[in-house]
Design a protein that fits this description.
The protein is mostly helical and 50 residues long. The chain has 2 helices and no strands. The longest helix has 12 residues, at 7-18.
Length: 50
């Protein structure tokens, strides 16, 4: 889902099929950058929300 950026579509499908609540926000596409990498390259900034 992250690779193809279809998280919102999959969440909507899941709700239709299972009648369950599944929320999706675009923050889930990004992962935190390891602190070691940020220390090695000061021009990097942590992804929002992490």
């Amino acid at each position: 889902m992250r690779r193809w950026r279809i998280g919102a579509q999959e969440a909507a499908y899941y709700q239709r099929v299972t009648s369950g609540a599944l929320t999706w926000n675009d923050q889930k596409y990004a992962l935190p950058i390891p602190q070691v990498e940020i220390n090695a390259n000061p021009s990097l900034q942590q992804n929002p929300g992490f």
